[in-house]
Amino acid sequence: MDNPHHTQQTAILTRIIGNIEKVNESMLALNNSVSETNVYNAKTAEVVELWTQYMENIKFNTANSAVYRPTTGDEQGEGTR
């Protein structure tokens, strides 16, 4: 005759193992999603870095080129063409 406690414990352990397998599958899916997000964020960070450098270059070049000459209020509208 089987021990009823042993049968009950086996059933409980089987349920626990099944639940742990489901949690493990969910964690693997979560890890994959986080990895994809990290790749996307790395690409976004690279674009931000490139854009920031581009804007700094524009500021430097316009400040040092003949196109950009800061004027005072007295000089506006004066001069001949």
Give an overview of the whole structure:
The protein is mainly α. The termini are far apart. It contains one helix and no strands.
Major sheet: size, sense and barrel closure? none
Q: How much helical structure, as a percent, in the residues?
A: over 70%
How are helices and strands ordered from N to C?
H
Q: What is the radius of gyration?
A: 34 Å
Low-pLDDT runs: none
Oligomerization status of the protein chains? single chain
Global mean pLDDT: 85
Beta-strand share of residues: under 5%
Basic shape:
rod-shaped
- SS-based structural class? mainly alpha
Separate helix tally: 1
Number of strands: 0
Distance between the termini: 113 Å
Write the SSE topology.
Elements: H1 4-63
Short descriptors:
81 residues, 1 helix, mainly alpha
Summarize this structure briefly.
By secondary structure, the chain is mainly alpha-helical.
